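job 3f2a | input accepted
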Amino acid sequence: MAKRGKVLRDPLAGPGLLMVEGQQYPFVLDGIWRSAVPASAGLAVDVEFDSQGSIRGITAVPDSQLAKEQAEVALTAAKEKGAAIASNLVAKFGVPTLIAEALLIVSWFFLTAVSVQLPFAGKLEFTFWQMLGFLNASNLLEILERNGHLSTGIYGFLAVVCLSGPLIHHFWKDKRAVLGGVLPLAFMAIVGLMVRSSLLNAMGETGGAPFGDMQQQVQDEMAKAVSIGMGIYVSALAALYFAGAAAKKFLASRAA
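job 3f2a | predicted structure (256 res):
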């Protein structure tokens, strides 16, 4: 039977000493030490015992094995801590809310919200977060210079606030706090209208202008080149869920 231990005293100046599971065992090298690595204080070893509990063999544990075991212990501890955190979140917010919140975050930050097919540049794809940067940009030249890497400014701050809106009522007990669930949907609608207005302004108004027909044609072609991405659909579903749940809870609290 093998057990993990540690060398407390090397056997060069007398009998060595091991610590195994809180007990000390004296040892000598002859016929017992089975490693090319010399015994030294602090060295981790695997100790084999016979049926009588006497030491039958000692083998030094390689550093690579120790590193692997330490990594496994750390991974196990991280999994246990993560499971505890997840359990607490589920207990506090509920599974549907967490799933909808995760979908909203992923769709806003990582999924394509809008794609534009350009004749020579190919298809350009933007996330919802990048659209906020478009709104925060002062002019079209800045958008081209930054190559899509734009600061979202105040719109980014509002987006974070709206993302946390569906969770507010878990911390603020006022019955109106449940209306925070409407914030993501309202924010998306406002951003959509602002982006559309910005595009129309960039192309110019069509009514009564000398080149009104040409500008109208340009707007029509631009509309055909723009397509809605998966990010809008996923985030809209999540936002609708939050808005519906918020309205239901608010009406129930009013009735009560």
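job 3f2a | Residues 94-255 form one domain.
job 3f2a | closed
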